[in-house]
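Weekly sync, protein design subgroup
Attendees: M.S., D.O., the rotation student, P.L. (late)

Item 1: inverse folding check
M.S. brought a backbone from last month's batch and wanted to see whether the design step gives back something sensible before we order anything. D.O. pointed out we never logged the input encoding, so this time it goes straight into the notes. Structure tokens as presented (497 positions):
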């Protein structure tokens, strides 16, 4: 656990200022010899030791973190300046539903999975290790990816406690990847990974003034990730800048034989990766459709959104306003999404649990029983109504109701996102990230979305983001748009900790 792990001895003060440093900045410092990976890890450990008692963004730090940092420094000495690139020697926090075959736990924040043993690293973790990244620790989250109970607040788990917002410490951070967003925003790690089924990357990123990329479903492997739904789950980066997020994305995309969806999605990965889309003039010629109606507008921040639209126009974009999403009422009702999620979760979770080397639970029914027998008012005080409803479902993935719900979600996508993009010749749809309708629309489609900081709402200065939603495999064009606007607006500032 975090509290039991301290850096060895006095933490040296590096010549290089680490706070808010990008991956590129850090690699340049490593190359120049003004920073080591060991100093970097020690800085983050000290930062977590100081801030985590209040923010509770991190569940645990790897007891091997310093050893891994030393290995990275040794590798750099042996291979010279050419090794100072990408994620080599860079500490990354993982959401605690992403499996690591090491001394870290993988529990989705739940007591039921404490001391379970995973058979292997998650597919994305293997790619990160192969790239030389330091698996630094596990970030807090909404327990079971906010699928256990409607009573629990976002960002709470019995293992990690209540994640708080670094910009307003009496507020939580909406979305289940809360620890990942707060951890990177508060400079507890260089970069982080989250997962999204519906809003769990882009929403916490929005409320922590950081960047979140929710990739097309299947673009990143879900193998070894505690699941909600194979139809909607996606793994993506949460970072302080678009450039850092793309650095991570380039590493984690690609085929994994243990996740069949990655084979088809690999066709969307551009030759040369995603960094080629980091263009300061990326807004030039882009047509952006602004979603309107009661589900897509927040009056309190409409002025800030208009400023961003004006900035985009000045950079060569065309803004098409007042677009109504067809069938928005049905999408927001979540009827079809809920049915698919409940059936998928019951099935997909059992498959994940069955593959664990060691576990106290092997099914959703086991988890419900465990929670009933181990309720603790301090650690585990919320109910499990969502679990119980999912367990009670009689339909399975072969049932007509399930097939109808999937077919209806496909219809809503084709006659919603696809219809607007095609009819108005758009590159992306745009809305405030905080409106749940944007993540719902992306979730049932399995389409990508990117959120970047858009401003700070009065009177408390609480952050909010702007979200860009595209069709399947459109990460490249979304990166062009989001990066160009990020560079033009330069909105993020670190939290006043």
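Designed sequence read out in the meeting:
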């Amino acid at each position: 656990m975090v509290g039991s792990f301290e850096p060895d001895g006095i933490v040296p003060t590096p010549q290089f200022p680490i706070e808010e440093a990008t991956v590129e900045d850090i690699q340049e410092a490593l190359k120049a010899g003004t920073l080591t990976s060991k100093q970097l890890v020690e800085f983050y450990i000290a930062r977590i030791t100081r801030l985590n008692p209040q923010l509770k963004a991190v569940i645990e730090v790897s007891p091997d973190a310093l050893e891994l940092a030393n290995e990275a420094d040794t590798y750099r000495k042996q291979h010279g300046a050419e090794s100072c690139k990408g994620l080599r020697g860079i500490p990354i926090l993982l959401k605690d539903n992403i499996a690591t075959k090491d001394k870290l736990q993988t529990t989705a924040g739940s007591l039921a999975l404490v001391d379970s043993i995973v058979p292997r690293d998650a597919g994305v973790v293997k790619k990160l290790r192969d790239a030389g990244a330091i698996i630094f620790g596990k970030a807090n989250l909404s327990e079971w990816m906010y699928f256990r109970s409607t009573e629990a607040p976002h960002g709470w788990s019995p293992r990690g406690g209540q994640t708080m917002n670094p910009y307003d410490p009496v507020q939580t951070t909406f979305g289940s990847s809360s620890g990942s967003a707060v951890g990177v925003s508060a400079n507890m790690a260089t970069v982080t990974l989250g997962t999204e089924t519906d809003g769990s990357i882009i929403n916490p990123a929005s409320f922590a003034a950081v960047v979140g990329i929710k990739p097309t479903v299947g673009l990143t492997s879900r193998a070894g990730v505690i699941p909600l739904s194979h139809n909607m789950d996606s793994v993506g980066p949460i970072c302080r800048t678009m450039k850092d997020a793309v650095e991570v994305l380039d590493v984690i995309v690609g085929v994994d034989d243990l996740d069949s969806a990655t084979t088809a999605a690999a066709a969307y990965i551009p030759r040369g990766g995603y960094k080629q889309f980091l263009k300061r003039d990326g807004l030039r010629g882009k047509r952006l459709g602004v979603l309107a109606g009661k589900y897509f507008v927040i009056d309190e921040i409409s002025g800030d959104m208009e400023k961003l639209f004006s900035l985009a126009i000045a950079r060569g974009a065309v803004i098409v306003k007042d677009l109504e999403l067809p069938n928005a009422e049905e999408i927001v009702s979540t009827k079809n999404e809920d049915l698919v999620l409940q059936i998928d979760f019951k099935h997909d979770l059992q498959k994940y649990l069955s593959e664990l080397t060691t576990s106290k639970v092997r099914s959703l029914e086991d988890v419900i029983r465990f929670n009933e027998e181990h309720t603790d008012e301090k650690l585990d005080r919320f109910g499990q109504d969502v679990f119980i409803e999912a367990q009670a479902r009689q339909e399975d993935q072969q049932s007509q109701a399930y097939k109808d719900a999937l077919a209806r979600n496909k219809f809503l996508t084709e006659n919603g996102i696809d219809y607007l993009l095609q009819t108005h010749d758009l590159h992306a749809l745009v809305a405030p990230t905080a409106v749940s309708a944007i993540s719902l629309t992306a979730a049932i489609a399995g389409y990508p979305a990117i959120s970047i900081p858009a401003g700070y709402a009065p009177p408390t200065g609480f952050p909010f983001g702007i979200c860009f939603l595209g069709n399947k495999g459109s990460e490249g064009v979304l990166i062009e748009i989001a990066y160009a606007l990020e560079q033009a607006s330069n909105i993020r500032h670190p939290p006043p900790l």
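Discussion: The first strand starts at residue 58 and ends at 61. Residues 221 and 256 are 6 Å apart (CA to CA).
Action: P.L. to compare against the previous round before Friday.
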